[in-house]
Amino acid sequence: MKSNERKERLVQYAGFWRRLIAIFLDTMIVFYPLIQLLSINVSNFGSLFVLSFIFQSLPFIYNICLLGICGQTLGMMVVRVRVEKLNQEKIKWKEAFLRYAVNVFVAILFLLMEYFYFSGVDEALLVGKNYSQFFLEFRNSNSTFNLISKIIASFSWIWTFSEVAVLLMNEKKRAIHDYIAGTVVVNVSK
């Protein structure tokens, strides 16, 4: 064998449960700071939008950065799985981003909707309220905003269920985002 040829190793693809546990652990890691953000009082449109932007983007920043740097999130490290290219090479920033491209697109849609609706809000309505209180009150008082947010949320749920269905139905246990990015999730040997 030539020295520049790579030895092919036996690949064991990560299954649904390991991936789910990793997602759960990563959600817990990111969830605590996000909950803290929801309790911050907002006093103007700028602070409302900044909080919303952070709330929408923090999960993607966490996942994309860790995958781009090490090919694993902290949850993946715990359950001993990692993301690789199909040819078993380490993923790069491009693949890390592509894995979350649809989710980022949905978050951008949601942010644009919030910007469009919240920019016309009387800032007196914000006084003494945190982001969560304002968002729920606004959603309940604005039927169009409520409808659009439900449509975006429904698309997000349909996407998630489609991801799981595809993952369960193929030999390499790849979700749709793995097909988009040209990646696969594999078990890491001890």
Number of helices: 8
- N-to-C order of helices and strands: HEHHEHHEHHHE
Task: Work out the count of structural domains.
Answer: 1
Task: Give the proportion of residues in helices.
Answer: 55-70%
Q: Note the quaternary state here.
A: single chain
Bulk shape: elongated
What is the spatial order of strands in the main beta sheet? 1-3
Which spans have pLDDT < 50 for at least 5 consecutive residues? 1-7
Query: How does the helix and strand content classify structurally?
Result: mainly alpha
Mean pLDDT across all residues, rounded?
89
Rg, nearest Å: 20 Å
Residue fraction in strands: 5-15%
Task: State the separation between the terminal residues, measured CA to CA.
Answer: 26 Å
How many strands appear in the DSSP assignment? Answer: 4
How would a textbook summarize the main sheet?
Answer: 2 strands, antiparallel
Give keywords:
disordered N terminus; 65% helix; mainly alpha; 190 residues
Description:
The protein is mainly alpha-helical and 190 residues long. 65% of the residues lie in helices and 7% in strands. The strands form 2 sheets. The protein has a two-stranded antiparallel sheet. Strands 2-4 form a two-stranded antiparallel sheet. Helix 2 (45-70) packs antiparallel against helix 5 and helix 5 packs antiparallel against helix 7 (143-168). The longest helix is centred in the first third of the chain and has 26 residues, at 45-70. The chain starts with 15 loop residues before the first helix and ends with a strand. The model is unreliable at 1-7 (pLDDT under 50).
Short account of what is shown:
The protein is mainly α and 190 residues long. Helix content is 65%, strand content 7%.
